[in-house]
Amino acid sequence: MSILILIIGFLALCLSTFMVIHLLGIKTMLLFSSFLFILLLIYYSVLTVAGLIYRSNTRNFQMKRKQDYPSVDILIPAHNEGVVIKDTLAAMAKLKYEGKLTVYLLNDNSSDETGEIADEFDKAYYHIKHIMVPSGEPKGKSRVLNYGLSISDGEYFCIYDADNQPEPGALTLLIEAALATDNAAGAVGYVKTMNEQKNWLTRMISIEFQVFQLLMQSGRWLLFKTGSLTGTNMLVKRSVIEQLGGYDVYAIAEDAELTLRITQSGYLLPIVPQSVTWEQEPETLGVYIKQRTRWLQGNLYILEKVFSTPSYWTGKLIVHSLHQLLVYVVFWLFLVLSYGWFILGLFGFLKIEYSLPLLFMWYVAYTVYTCQLFSAQISEETNKPINIFSALIMYFTYAQLFTYLFVRSLSLYIKARINNKTIGWDKTTRFKSQK
Amino acid sequence: MKKHQKSSLFWLLKVIIFIVLIQFTNTTQTIIFTLLIILSAIFYSLSTKRISFIYFVVVTLASIFYILYLAFVQHWSPVEQGKQILVHFSTMSVLFLLYISNYHLKDIVNENIELTNKMNELEKFIGNTVLLTQSEFENRAQIIKNSMQRRNETGYIISIDLSKLNNNISESILLDISNSALKSVRNQFDLVGQFSSNNIKILIQNTNEEGLNIVMNRFFSNFIQKVDEKIYDQLLIESVKI
User: Fold this and answer.
1) pLDDT, averaged across chain A
2) How does residue A24 score in pLDDT terms, banded at 50, 70 and 90?
3) Strand A72-78 relative to strand A101-107, pairing
4) For chain B, does the N or the C end have fewer beta carbons within 10 angstroms?
């Protein structure tokens, strides 16, 4: 039903675009889209400055009164993570936390040495448990996490991906932020790339992460008091997830989906830049495309929910819904239209007599984007010459991959929905650590 | 590339862009451009690294949106837009290079302050004397105090203050006090340290009041061998049992 709504919605959008062009003329349409695009750029510019201001505070959260640290369960879903799990569990053993802490390695039917390594840690440390997750459908992180929640009982739970190495104080900072913020459902930390120097791809992924965290996390938190769960280095109160009915097992981007439900319920998710975990990013283009296709499909699932659920357009949730709409509909549409326009113009099929400063608008877009990248690098103190050069060329290289990834994800998503199939969970390939 | 090489390169780039840019701008634009550079340089030098960068981002974004507004209102041709892009990009490049140079300069200054502090901390003796520095005296005194406590022993810290002395002679007298103090205590056993330009501290360990008096008398006789007794009377001497 919802896929039908999506298709009808898309067709209606195309039809209305053509009608508007015919009724108002192409110049008016151009003017309208230009202003919409400028608004988008201004919005992201404001977010950049807000992010910089938020990041310039060295400590953003202070507990109002001295209180005991609550019990926390760390959940680590793992499926064939033999390459990285030793380092991950070693990092967990180094965590400093004053309250009761239990680490659950949720082994989702691994066939490699994940289980053996986890057993060694289980035997050596009282607080590290190796848990075998029973097989089940649909496959994926959400089901494993729901199982983890069913066998644990801490007041809070914190998720770390199986390739993560949090800094010793990361968890304490998250808890302090959650306790210091009224009506907080938990807290979200920062994710940094441990294999940033491996190649150009990892370097650009790292910059992209820094930008996301500066604008979408720090910037939006300062301006709108909204934060997003990032799937790792994130803390949630058990009572909140119980109230919301656990993870949606069909959501591939389970973190983004849960964020929407938490925000819808009126809870806050404070952002804690000082709480840092280090993780691996894809080192090859193949692995990157696979991972990003899964993420984008997850976001399309959320977009479908945004379109089909009127309550997603109320209160603070508007910030998230608008973001989904701006990135995955408006921005993409602009992008595709501009490509089409460029190609048609190149071959002389389309000639428009315009008086709009389109060339300068393009320059504004490039500058705003590059400013964001520089800002992120300055915030994280990663502004080495090679990273500055990467930032200058990212618009022409890495950023252009988005179109291909989006088209790939959209076609796979629509195909799966038409065939009424559940979208499978594609595990990201890990690489040998070289921190 | 080393930091000082980077800084030189940035300066060179700034000068080149500046010279090239003023060839393509009219007088008003050149004045605005020069003023912006001067004001930014002042701002960067007065503020922190992060605040400086926020300033750079705000100036870049505000200026670019303002120029876009002008482009809309004045219906700029693609050639005019291209020219303005070049001018804006060059201006912002100079501002960014200025920021980066300042960033490196502040890094070097901070590193220098840090290293100086560390060096002061690591320094054991004042100049070429065997007089201990304050941090070295405090570290050694702490160990001695702990040991004495475990062995149920007593000791004394004597403080000699010169603040009442005439400024013209205090530096010279300080040297005599140090020499006298070092001659009066047990070598390689008691401590003598300089805390400021007019304060010397002596730690005598494993001794009683009688031992304290012996040291004080020895100090007195050593001191007045060279310096007038009236000067001794002006010294503020205090002893505390530890």
Assistant:
1) 85
2) low
3) parallel
4) N
Q: From residue A57, give the alpha-carbon distance in Å to each of A54, A186, A223.
A: 6, 20, 15
How many domains does chain A divide into?
1
User: Which of B51, B60, B82 has its CB closest to that of A367?
Assistant: B60
Alpha-carbon distance of B191 to B194, in angstroms, equals 10
Per DSSP, B153 falls in state -
Q: With CA atoms as reference, report the closest residue to A371 among A45, A97, A25.
A: A45
Q: Which residues contact A138 (CB under 8 A, 6 or more apart)?
A: A249, A250, A422, A425
User: Which residue is listed with tokens 């930014």?
Assistant: B40
Residue pLDDT, tens place only, A301-351: 888 888 888 887 877 778 778 877 877 777 777 777 777 777 766 777 666
Q: Which pLDDT does position B242 carry in this prediction?
A: 86
Q: Is the peptide bond before A138 cis (omega within 30 degrees of 0)?
A: yes
Of the two residues B202 and B51, the one the predictor is more confident about is: B202
* Inter-chain residue contact B53 with A378, CB threshold 8 Å: yes
The residue written with tokens 């975990």 in the block is A277
CATH of the domain at A236: 3.90.550.10
Structural domain includes residue A28 = no
Closest CA to A297 of A209, A415, A204, A401: A415
- Least confident residue range of A215-219, B46-50, B128-132: B128-132
SS3 content of chain A, % helix, strand, coil (to 5): 55, 10, 30
Partner-chain contact A375 B57, CB within 8 Å: yes
**Residue A270 Cα, gap to closest chain B Cα (Å):** 22
Closest among B82, B132, B139, B5 to A385, alpha carbons compared: B5
Amino acid type, A291: Q
Domain boundaries, chain B: 3-121, 134-241
- How far the first Cα of chain B sits from its last, in Å, is 55
pLDDT at A435: 47
The answer to whether residue B79 neighbours chain A at the CB level (below 8 Å) is: no
Q: Which fold has domain B134-241?
A: Alpha-Beta Plaits (3.30.70)
Min Cα separation B77/chain A (Å) = 7
pLDDT given at position A357: 84
In the predicted model, what is the mean pLDDT of chain B?
Answer: 87
Alpha-carbon separation of residue A354 from A30, A32, A341, B85 (angstroms): 9, 13, 13, 19
Contact between chains at B65 and A52 (C-beta distance less than 8 A) = no
- What is the extent of the structural domain holding A272? 72-206+229-283
* Cα of B12 to nearest chain A Cα, Å: 16
Count Cβ atoms within 10 A of the Cβ of residue A147 and give its class: 0-12 exposed, 13-18 middle, 19 or more buried: buried
| Nearest alpha-carbon partner for B3 in B78, B94, B121, B106 | B106
